């Protein structure tokens, strides 16, 4: 059995990890770490676990935790993860971090977008970006995986094959994305209060959201040249789900079938990518509760442009599910172990 520890287990992404891992046949939930709920049973905080999981939350010494686990998931805020991870890595345990602290290839880019110097550039250089569809082989041999962000997973997966095949121009790409409110975490704020969000919809952090840099990092690798994008996130009144609508200029007179061939080449064997046939587009209700990313697109021949639509559940493929997918890779298990259930739909 794989002995798992989760730091930040009572946050929205952390508790989704707990939910998914209770169904994993190879996992023993060894330690659930929390600062705010020490000594309390997880089923007393999240009552959906009543009768299913009885496990007290602990505040643990990191060396003891590392010694009693084979892998530790850190599901903490940015800049908090990097306070604990160097110690865990030094103790020899595998770490999958859900924050942004180990996602970047460049400490300077992290500093520019997060406003703080990276605390450990040497460790950042050793970490692997945990998007299995793009970096599977590197992930298998990693000790530290930087699990991608939610908007970024949805957007990169939607555009990557077209840039890799040179079917769209790397210039003037627009990513317009909408997220449910769990993307902002469990701590309530004025912006995420029910009365602020319900029956409304708003763009935020326009032209300055930090996920811009993460999407650009991976799309630049795909295109083999620098890609800069316009990225506009929106908050909408639902709990889960992300829908990205992306606009890119075609480099030639390509048909739907031409572009579909590039997607099939890139994703033909992928367990979690679902390509929609011509005339069908993704919706968040198709993916919520699941680890799948649905992708569909329309070729606008009039404007020589493609409009790509992709959808994920921010808490699953956008966070905890993808982290479990990475764990499966790290331990040589079938990648879809405990993750193959379809979305909830309703
Ligand atoms: N929500 C989402 O859709 C996604 C989240 N992520 C990332 O995953 C990580 C966790 O996110 P999420 O679960 O949404 O966040 P939450 O705010 O819901 O949970 C974070 C948890 O971290 C613990 N914590 C420890 N130290 C601190 C601290 N100094 N300040 C606040 N919390 C602290 C808290 O638990 P306790 O007090 O018990 O220790 C808390 O429950 C973040 O880095 C986030 O950016 C990534 C992709 C998607
Ligand atoms: C709706 C909402 O607020 N979403 C978050 C993104 C959540 C996410 O993916 O997380 P990382 O912070 O780990 O990159 C935001 O815009 O900041």
UniProtKB/TrEMBL annotation:
Which top-rank group of organisms is this from? Bacteria
Q: Which UniProt keywords apply?
A: Amino-acid biosynthesis, Arginine biosynthesis, Cytoplasm, NADP, Oxidoreductase
One of the Pfam families matching this protein, by short name: Semialdhyde_dhC_1
One GO cellular component term of this record is: cytoplasm
UniProt-listed HAMAP family: ArgC_type1
What does this gene product do?
A: Catalyzes the NADPH-dependent reduction of N-acetyl-5-glutamyl phosphate to yield N-acetyl-L-glutamate 5-semialdehyde.
Protein name, entry field: N-acetyl-gamma-glutamyl-phosphate reductase
Species annotation: Luoshenia tenuis
Q: Tell me what gene encodes this.
A: argC
